């Protein structure tokens, strides 16, 4: 049984990860590279020339006021960066790994549902996938928008704790709505969905972005779009493999 | 309903196996998405930004 769960989750996850990587290079990677040009000072947005605090991005922290010495910062960055091929190959590998982990978690959820007598096939899987997108990407993004490289944000560990708490609360909240079946579980579900946003994500008091806001907005929108498509495919595929392992 | 539950119980996984599989998934997710070792961070950098994980 463990083997069936892991095999289905990993297979669906890697397939979805390859799709995510393809969509990443079509919709997201160019925006990341453009964001880095603003981060390193190769490009300067007319409104974004403020000083970044020392608590910011690694590269900024290392170079201090990067806007004052763009050439030095760019040269250092270029020396640190791997080749495009290596960089993109690692992105493909880690995207597949991440979606494999989502696939495994999703299938563990299928098994839990089946343990309580609920069948999951490709149709239910599709809905689970969309719910997974909401829990793992959309709800966290409403507090911590996907960050363009160079974004200066609050303390990392505090953001990670909020991210994890939001994923757990949102996932449990959706499950209570879907499978609870009475008013009490629906109210509890709504409270769990709202709680992370009532508590509030860790944010800084000021904005330090060097890149144009349009670029950050396009990046966030594309990241969420790619996430939704990939999660839907992941859920559908994982549900199909779960219901009919031999069909895969 | 009883029949359904019995069928499900026969074919479904135990809670312990489910917890184990969920733990495996969470571990992979932590390593790929959230661990802060410099090597892992650099290798996973673009993916972390593109999945909306808190990165830096």
- Kindly estimate the percentage of residues of chain B that lie in beta strands according to DSSP: under 5%
Shape of chain B: elongated
Broad structural category of chain B = mainly alpha
The class by helix and strand makeup of chain A works out as: mainly alpha
Radius of gyration of chain A: 20 Å
**What would you call the shape of chain A?**
globular
DSSP summary, beta strand count of chain B: 0
Fraction in helix of chain A: over 70%
Largest interface: A-B, 54 and 41 residues
Into how many domains do the coordinates of chain A divide?
A: 1
Amino-to-carboxy terminus distance of chain A: 16 Å
Instruction: Supply Rg of chain B.
Output: 18 Å
The number of helical runs of chain A is 9
Q: How many domains, in number, for the residues of chain B?
A: 1
Largest sheet entry of chain B:
none
The whole-number mean of residue pLDDT values of chain A reads: 88
Instruction: Tell me the major beta sheet of chain A.
Output: none
Mean pLDDT of chain B: 82
Question: In brief, what are we looking at here?
Answer:
The complex is a heterodimer of chains A (248) and B (56). Chain A is mostly helical and 248 residues long. Chain A contains nine helices and no strands.
Structural write-up:
- The complex is a heterodimer of chains A (248) and B (56).
- Chain A has 248 residues and is mainly alpha-helical.
- Chain A has one domain.
- Chain A is 73% helix and 0% strand.
- In chain A, helix 1 crosses helix 5 and helix 7 runs antiparallel to helix 8.
- The longest helix of chain A has 32 residues.
- Chain A starts with a helix and ends in a 5-residue tail after the last helix.
- About 7% of the residues of chain A have low confidence.
- Chain B is mainly α and 56 residues long.
- Chain B has one domain.
- Chain B is built from 3 helices and no strands.
- The N terminus of chain B is likely disordered.
- Classes of the chains: A mainly alpha (248), B mainly alpha (56).
- Chain A: It holds the Pfam family CbtA.
- Chain A: Keywords: Membrane, Transmembrane, Transmembrane helix.
């Amino acid at each position: 049984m463990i083997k069936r769960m892991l095999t289905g989750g990993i297979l669906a996850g890697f397939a979805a990860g390859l799709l995510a990587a393809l969509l990443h290079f079509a919709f997201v990677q160019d925006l990341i590279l453009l964001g880095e040009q603003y981060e390193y000072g190769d490009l300067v947005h007319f409104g974004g020339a403020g000083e970044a605090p020392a608590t910011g991005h690694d590269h900024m922290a290392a170079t201090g006021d990067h806007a004052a010495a763009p050439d030095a910062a760019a040269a250092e960055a270029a020396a640190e960066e791997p080749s495009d091929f290596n960089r993109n190959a690692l992105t493909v590998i880690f995207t597949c790994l991440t979606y494999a982990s989502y696939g495994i978690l999703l299938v563990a959820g299928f098994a839990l549902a089946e343990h309580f007598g609920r069948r999951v096939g490709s149709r239910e899987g599709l809905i689970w996938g969309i719910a997974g997108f909401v829990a793992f990407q959309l709800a966290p993004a409403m507090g911590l928008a996907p960050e363009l490289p160079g974004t200066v944000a609050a303390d990392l560990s505090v953001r990670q704790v909020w991210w994890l708490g939001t994923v757990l609360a949102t996932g449990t909240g959706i499950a209570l709505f879907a499978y609870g079946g009475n008013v009490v579980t629906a109210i509890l579900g709504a409270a769990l969905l709202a709680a992370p946003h009532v508590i509030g994500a860790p944010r800084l008091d000021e904005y330090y972005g060097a890149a144009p806001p349009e670029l950050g907005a396009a990046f966030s929108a594309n990241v969420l779009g790619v996430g939704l498509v990939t999660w839907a495919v992941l859920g559908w595929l994982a549900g199909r493999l779960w219901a009919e392992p031999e069909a895969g | 309903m009883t029949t359904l539950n019995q069928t499900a119980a026969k074919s479904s996984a135990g809670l312990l196996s489910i917890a184990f599989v969920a733990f495996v998934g969470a571990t992979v997710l932590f390593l790929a998405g959230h661990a802060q070792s410099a090597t892992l961070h650099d290798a996973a950098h673009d993916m972390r930004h593109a999945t909306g994980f808190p990165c830096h």
